Amino acid sequence: MPRIGMIDKLPESVRDELDRRLAAARFKASDDLVAWLAEGGHTISIGMIARRAAALKKQHEKDRRLERHYAAMFRAMESLKR
Which 3 state secondary structure label does DSSP give 47? Predict the structure, then answer.
């Protein structure tokens, strides 16, 4: 069973906001994010944030590939209807 990390233990709303901020920062961890979390009473290292960012980026890239794949399939199906 995978180990539950410190970020996974954060409240869902904090995790969601962290993910949103990481995406806005193009999946780059920063001291600003460490400070923002600390302001909320959460001690999370920049290394933990960087690992989260890498996992989110990987998932984002996978999602983008799937979107392109399904768009191509849809276009192909539409062209068959003509």
Answer: helix
- pTM, two decimal places: 0.76
pLDDT in tens, 34-79: 999 999 999 999 999 999 999 999 999 998 899 999 898 999 888 8
Q: Which long-range contacts (CB under 8 A, 24 or more apart) does 15-22 make?
A: 18/49, 18/52, 19/52, 19/56, 22/49, 22/52, 22/53, 22/56
CB atoms within 10 A of CB 63: 10
Residue labelled with tokens 């191509």? 72
- CB count within 10 Å of CB 56 equals 15
Report the alpha-carbon distance of residue 35 to residue 66 in Å, rounded. Answer: 35
Retrieve residue 16's tokens: 């969601």
